[in-house]
Amino acid sequence: MQIIIAPYSGFCFGVKKAIAKAEEMIKTDNVSFASLGPLIHNPQEIKRLEKKGIIPRESINDIVESKILIRTHGVSPAIYKQLEEKQMEIIDSTCPYVRKVQKIVYEYANKDYTILILGNEKHPEVQGILGWSLGKGLAFRNLEEILTKDLNAKKLCLVAQTTENTETFTKVVDYLQSKYPDLIVHNTICSATLERQKSALELAQKVNLMIVVGGLNSANTQKLAHLCHEAGVSTKHIETAEKIEKSWFYDVDSVGVTAGASTPDWIIEEVVRKMEEIKNPEEIQITEETQTTKEIQSAEEGAQTQEQLEQNISNYGEVQQGDTLTGKVVQIKTDEILVDVGGKSEGIIPVNELSYRKINDPNDFVKIGDEFPVLVLKVENSEGNMILSKRRAEQEKALAELELAFQNGTIIEAEVVEVVKGGVLVDVGMRGFVPASLLERGFIENLEQFIGQKLKFKVIELNQEDRKAVLSRKAILDEEYEANKEKVWNEIKEGETLKGTVQRLTDFGAFIDLGGVDGLLHVSEMGWGRVSHPRDVVTEGDEIQVYVLGVDKKNERISLGLKQLTPSPWELAVKKYLPGTTLTGKVVRIAPFGVFVEVEPGIDGLVHISQLSWDRVDKPEDVVKVGQEVEAKVLDVDAEKKRMSLSIKEITEKPVKEKLEYVAIETHQNNEPSGVTIGDVVGDIFSKLNNKE
Ligand code: SF4
User: Fold this and answer.
1) Is 435 helix (H, G, I), strand (E, B) or coil?
2) What is the rounded CA–CA span in Å between residue 321 and residue 377?
3) pLDDT per residue as tens digits for the range 154-201
4) What Cα–Cα distance (Å) separates residue 323 from each residue in 71, 158, 378, 544?
């Protein structure tokens, strides 16, 4: 009996990674941690991991550990929130394929799409995805079920559980697309699933019996068993070797073995060993169906295969290497895209031939049903498929367009896709290089800011042979600058208000780009009040209105103002500060003849030295300091000359000495009769003083 193991079977990349991560953590931290639900759908492997310290917990409330591992199925945002609230350390092992579905669903739910999820609503992966769909998700099992749903939403987006069956998905897509032409389709069935399904099916067609190994609760293993059964071969789904029965192998001369994505190698090995024991070992041949065995089999079936290939080639007509055909995408795999080019076999675009851009997921570049030109790299490979390139077909077209743009100096638009040493790469249907110095007129600190931007360029170098194109954006900006410059000089007038962009700040002002010409906005013209530094008023990149104070065409100088666009505070000062009123201000400058007090931004009043105090003042700084707040009485306001006179001494009391002098003078002036004694005079002075009080 021959035992053949399917080339793609057992642990998938996502599960392998999750288990390796969990085991590594146990080894490093030596602390048990919880997994939310069993880490994988395989009871035997779960038991093994539990012994090591990875404890499956059914709900968050059951968790007693401080760390939690999120399994490959992922969880909903609500679960993340609950775990955070419990302040648990999260080890997130959500499979990247599942994460991608969650992202798609979240993106479209946010755009108000109804999300159709082909999958099992009860499966944890689908429950997580439903959580990301913000209440707009609808899970269904198959075409029959979706037919019963009332889909009256205009915006529909379809995804699939990662382990879904491709055939079911295709049927659903065909139906929904015929009814809803605007349907957005994302084939999110993971490649591990597709590979396992495909290789199980291929194997099922060659053997008398298929043994499908894996958890009875594992969705992807169940699907493998279902597919094999549907292919018409006797199929047994078992979890472990103990379940194997001798009777299965009567009259069986070849048996195929496949396993779900959550089945560890050690269980597959046990199953194979058990089958070896059942039959006489000499009679058993174990084959791991690798590429080599496939090739051997192909050679055995040589005649027919050759015939088939020839038939395929004839179907393609006179197709030759280097021809360009039109291909329609029929399947998207991680490493290749299958396209229909009109022959019996499908053409293959290896993923690196899809685009010259960095490809993380081919689904980001093409979708099922897309049609585009493809270049024939090989008319047929060993399996009769054409090998095609999308990017080279685009490159040929792009080169022709670039040549035209180069010759005529025309402007082309392209998206910046990558930062590389010395510049950026742009998408011009092929890679185009823009040196950093030719991307802007000035120095650029961060090239990353341009990624994703569609900009205009000129082709300045083109090498058809090496397929290299160098582009410049600066060439266009320079031309625009020169054209604008002339326009500005011709049109600019004193007294007008213009829009400009703050280009550069200095200590004495800001240079404003008026669209090709820079004008100077001096710091003294920025506000009616005192401005310490231009940065207090404007920032580089600001778009502002400016007032043209002066234009000197000969010396190419333009002076600008900002404060002129707001009313002068002096216009209101006459009504606001009447003589005799008291105000508070700050001493801003001291001069030998007095001090300047800022009454409000733009209005400084002068307190003359004689108005500082009733006492004699030699130097103003003996009385006040710069920055001091003072009270003063308004003596006079001259708005035209922008002058205000203030007095500090007027709001303070006259000292006794001053009063005495005043009374003495008064007394003397009254010409008191002679014979009055000094005592009478003093008495009189005090009585007058009292009255003065
Ligand atoms: S089956 Fe696919 S989606 Fe699921 S864990 Fe494995 S790689 Fe990820």
Assistant:
1) strand
2) 6
3) 799 999 999 888 889 999 999 998 888 889 999 998 878 788 888 899
4) 48, 35, 10, 57
φ, ψ of residue 380 to 5 degrees: the values are: -160, 145
94 lines ligand 1 (CB under 6 A): no
99 lines ligand 1 (CB under 6 A): no
CA atoms of 186 and 201, how far apart (whole Å)? 24
Read off φ and ψ for residue 325, nearest 5 degrees. Answer: -120, 175
Is the CB of residue 272 below 6 angstroms from any atom belonging to ligand 1? no
- Give 494-531 pLDDT, tens digit per residue: 999 999 999 999 999 999 999 878 899 999 999 988 89
Q: Is the CB of 162 under 6 A from ligand 1?
A: yes
Q: Which of 11, 13, 258 is the pocket-test mutation for ligand 1 (most atoms within 8 Å of CB)?
A: 13
Q: How far apart are CA 487 and CA 250, in angstroms?
A: 95
Strand partners, 591: 594
Residue 338's φ and ψ, nearest 5 degrees, are: -100, 130
| Residue from 17, 163, 363 whose mutation best tests the ligand 1 pocket (most atoms within 8 A of CB) | 163
Least confident of 82-91, 202-211, 254-263, 677-686: 677-686
Separation CA 258–CA 12 (nearest Å): 13
Percentages (nearest 5) of helix, strand, coil residues in the chain: 40, 30, 35
**403: closest CA among 484, 336, 468?**
468
With tokens 């599942």, the residue in question is: 98
620 pocket-lining for ligand 1 (C-beta < 6 Å): no
Backbone dihedral region for residue 257 (phi beyond 0: left; psi -120 to 50: alpha; all else: beta): beta
Query: Residue 106, exposed/middle/buried by CB under 10 A (0-12, 13-18, 19+)?
Result: middle
Which ligand 1 atom sits closest to the C-alpha of 191?
2
Q: Which long-range contacts (CB under 8 A, 24 or more apart) does 265-272 make?
A: 265/10, 265/11, 267/42, 267/44, 267/45, 267/213, 267/239, 267/240, 267/241, 268/5, 268/9, 268/10, 268/213, 270/240, 270/241, 271/211, 271/213, 271/238, 271/240, 271/241, 271/244, 272/3, 272/5
Neighbouring CB atoms inside 10 A of 326's CB total 13
CA of 318 to the centre of ligand 1 (A): 42
Q: Take residue 502 and report the two structure tokens written for it.
A: 């703050």
> How many CB atoms lie under 10 A from the CB of residue 150?
5
Distance in Å, CA 190 to ligand 1 centroid: 6
Residue 49 Cβ contacting ligand 1 at under 6 Å: no
